[in-house]
Amino acid sequence: xxxxxxxxxxxxxxxxxxxxxxxxxxxxxxxxxxxxxxxxxxxxxxxxxxxxxxxxxxxxxxxxxxxxxxxxxxxxxxxxxxxxxxxxxxxxxxxxxxxxxxxxxxxxxxxxxxxxxxxxxxxxxxxxxxxxxxxxxxxxxxxxxxxxxxxxxxxxxxxxxxxxxxxxxxxxxxxxxxxxxxxxxxxxxxxxxxxxxxxxxxxxxxxxxxxxxxxxxxxxxxxx
Length: 224
Description:
Helix content is 29%, strand content 17%. The chain has helices spanning 11-18, 57-62, 71-74, 90-101, 127-144, 159-167, 212-219; strands spanning 42-46, 78-79, 82-83, 110-113, 148-152, 172-175, 182-190, 193-200.
């Protein structure tokens, strides 16, 4: 990648070039509005868009720099448990709570997925998909320059697991307060400085909203 600074208007071209051959697949680049492609404290990263039959990545590219909606606030979601009004699905509410407790407004946080291709569940994507998408994240991260990357999911095949394979670093663990699931974190050295990568159990199954210590742990960089 060129050492020349990447600007917001470069992102669609970088994505089109990086994902050539994949653009006919359904998927999404951002869960937040285009206005979040700017410096910010937090970069929110899920695994990949769920469901089936959405717009193609090429269609998403055409609106990447004009998208106004935030998927965690403005979209009405369905899951196996039913249908929800915009922002009212459990995962949406948990993300919004967590970001607000970290001092961020959901609308201001760049929210995306490690893998842009859509699938019904995690078995429909692989580490190879993550490798394909990563150059786009490098470009976005170079603009956002976050101090925290907050990942939804921290198993071996997860955004957290992928980042740890990339950047290494001594991991820190603490109890999540739910079964034997843990909170995981490590420091990654990025071009703009040190970034704390915080890995939470998947928020579709894990509810942190009554666990203030989760927020405190993230704020402290994983130090209890």
